Amino acid sequence: MEISDTTIAPEIDQDTQAAIDVDRATGDFRFPENHKFDAGYGLNADTVRYISNVKKEKDWILEFRLKALDVFESKPMPTNWATDDLNNIDFDAIRYYLSDGQQPKRSWDDVPDDIKETFERLGIPQQERAFLAGVEAQFDSEAAYSNVKEALSKEGVIFVNSTEGLREHEEIFRPYFGKVIPTGDNKFSALNSAVFSGGSFIYIPKGVKLKQPLQAYFRINSENFGQFERTLIIADEGSEVMYMEGCTAPKFETATLHSAVVELVALKGAKIQYITVQNWSSNVFNLVTKRGIAHEDAEIRWIDCNIGSRLTMKYPGVVMKGEGARGEVISIALANDGQLQDTGAKMIHAADNTTSNVVSKSISVGKGNSTYRGQVHIPKHLKGCKNNTECDALLINSTSRTDTYPAITVRGNQHVTQHEASVSQVSEDMLFYMQQRGLNEGQAMSLAVNGFINELVREFPMEYSVELKRLIDLEMEGSVG
Amino acid sequence: MTTLELPSITAEQPSTLADAPQWFTDAQNAAWQTYLDSPAPSRKMETWRFGELKQLDFDSFTPAAFADSQDIDVAISGLDETSAQFIFTNDSLAHAEADLPDGVICLPLEDALQQHPELVEKHFMKGDSKLGSAKFAALHKAHLSNGLFVYVPKGVEVVKPIEVYHILAGDKLAIFPHTLIVTEANAKVTVVDYFKSAGDGAGLCIAMNDLIAGPGSQLNYSAIQDFNLSSKIIQINNTTAERDSNAKAFTLNIGCAWARNESLSLLSGKGANSDMLSLNIPSGEQKFDQRTFQHHAAPHTFSDLLYKNTLYDKSKTVFSGLITVDPGAHFTDAYQTCRNLLMDDTTEINSMPGLQISADQVKCSHGSTASAISDEEIFYLQARGIHPKKARQLIARGFCVEVIERIGNEALEALVLSYVDAKFATIA
């Protein structure tokens, strides 16, 4: 099928089209939409009531949402420290809730050739490709999902969406909901709190160690993937879980704003690993708040990889609340032309003998800009806290840019912190060496870049690391010469 | 009791410097307006993050120039051999002697404005204050009544250091010392600023120093801040390093209840080299706030920053450093290190070492560390018969010496170390 403006359904008027197509590059495609529930454009108390009503939520949730809306409206944009690009978000041009039929009805034929080619080269299985392209009809994960669900529920694991979580398991989720990341944490967490839909609510019972990672895209497919998903994972004492968020997502994501809130609670001795591979299309503002609370001897690891989006602002955090808790952030960011990857980590030590580790590697290509922004906080009266922060940046072209803004606060003298950052580029010698052995310049550059992040890529599960390497190869193409 | 109503430094426009050239009077008038129009620092500003905004209430201070400059006697230890010595008491020149090579201009700013107005105009406060205190830089300019102008012409070397003493006497008085140093091509000079209180009165010092290192020149500047513990200082340093020059700025902070240092180095020409050094030993309730900016605007430039803080008691330091490498400033080496030695459990450090790199072929790094002296180190010295208290002091001293050794002038290094030892002696 030819991809052009003519594929837009006639019922979509000019304004609507303009709203959907904010900052869209040519070559992307559009599709007709048909939604059963649509909260319309813009955001006000009625929008919030509409969403809450459609979800048949209890009163306290509606109140929570309305209060969050007030907070959102009262908070200024954080442009005093963040990029002015945030001012380009038009909150009135965004639809805050779509449901039932929100999943774009597309056929494989609608998918542009370059995207198909991308999938081909990424080696993504046919089924998954269809999902990634948003082709619902061709992707049938319900069966697979049901199997997983059955096995999980035998162990007592709860794995539901946010609506169901708050409705069916209020006693489990309510005590932690909005507690790790309070509504007023920042403007975008408040926005999410007002209009959240979708996302995963997970409870792992005491002592249950899940061998298989839980994956977000089962959930996404069976439930609408809102732009404002809300995730809450509670790992009870001694349990272990790995959660993977695969937004190796559609190049044709229509959203211009993705603002999620992810809260993790690791109770005594529990372990949570949260893995994200973010590859939004380059017109998405990806403003995500992620934080975990680690109780006594618990461990929370964020493994975060950002390749897509126009602007990503994401600083996964760990509050180490119990003695001996550990927090870790492993972050890879790749910024190409027109992209700002503003990522980092927040480590809040709140108990004795807590340890945190941050390893961040960023690559700036073309006119890309990658930023590390970090916070380490060790308050008074604590003993034996340790933090290690390493950030390395690689600049590929002379127009590339990288920034580092860490902030470290230490009170008391019984702690050890260290921060190191370096900036470098791929040396001519290294490229020459590889070219001498028969690689072309592009291949040599790809190899060097993959080498730069290799130790971190190993932290990802196999299929992700393979995909990641290929994605990086793709991004690096044409970056030299 | 009758009290003389003295004007507050923030309430009304000071009278401009008499007999100054018109451009300078205009600049002072404009600065006062800028001061009034500039927003006060707020929590929202990154440049004041972790900063102490409550320290910025200067309403109760009076320009020291209004106060009686009675005979003030204060003992200050300086260098044995100098090529010039100037003493300013409450911003008035109290003593001057100089034995300088031909062509070197070394005059109180007041006189320099009359004798060399063009030369002063060319270099006077050309840089912007980007590190948060633009409002106070304007206040400084509006109130400026004295300071020192040093001009070293092409190829001239001033061997012995030039010393400048700024003495603040009295309570609730403010001084605005200014040091402007210009070295022309291949010239060389060393200037030392001393800041000292006479008595226990709470003083305020808003000091600025502009260092302009011409092509191939060597400009060494040191500041020794030893005010009493009830005073405050805002010190703004602007360095410009031109082609193949070497600019070195060192600051020692041991006095003041609250000290804010803003240090900016602009590397404007190929081959320029800037060393930014600072040693801080806060104790008691002292709070030191340091903001630095290494701005590489030309290729093949080099900057190296080393800030060391040794903290005692309930003291607190803030370090915020930024390296910016402009597009096109390739082959730049920029290093930034901030090390904190925590001597007591009640100390607090905040460290924000930042990088902004927009160029290629760049070697940049920053590091920030914070830790206490390890038990092993104390044990090692104890095993050799050294009392633990003495051992801790030895290690702290050794920690400080690494910065001092980089000043590169033996007599000056020994002097700085004597100030450091004097400070250690006050710490129980």
TrEMBL record, chain B:
Span of domain SUF system FeS cluster assembly SufBD core: 168-399
SUPFAM superfamilies the UniProt entry points to: Stabilizer of iron transporter SufD
Segments forming domain SUF system FeS cluster assembly SufBD N-terminal: 23-164
GO biological process, alphabetically ordered: iron-sulfur cluster assembly
Record-linked InterPro entries: Fe-S_cluster_assembly_SufBD, SUF_FeS_clus_asmbl_SufBD_core, SUF_FeS_clus_asmbl_SufBD_sf, SUF_FeS_clus_asmbl_SufD, SufBD_N
NCBIfam families (UniProt xref): sufD (TIGR01981)
Family: Belongs to the iron-sulfur cluster assembly SufBD family.
Protein name: Fe-S cluster assembly protein SufD
Organism: Rubritalea profundi
Lineage per the UniProt record: Bacteria, Pseudomonadati, Verrucomicrobiota, Verrucomicrobiia, Verrucomicrobiales
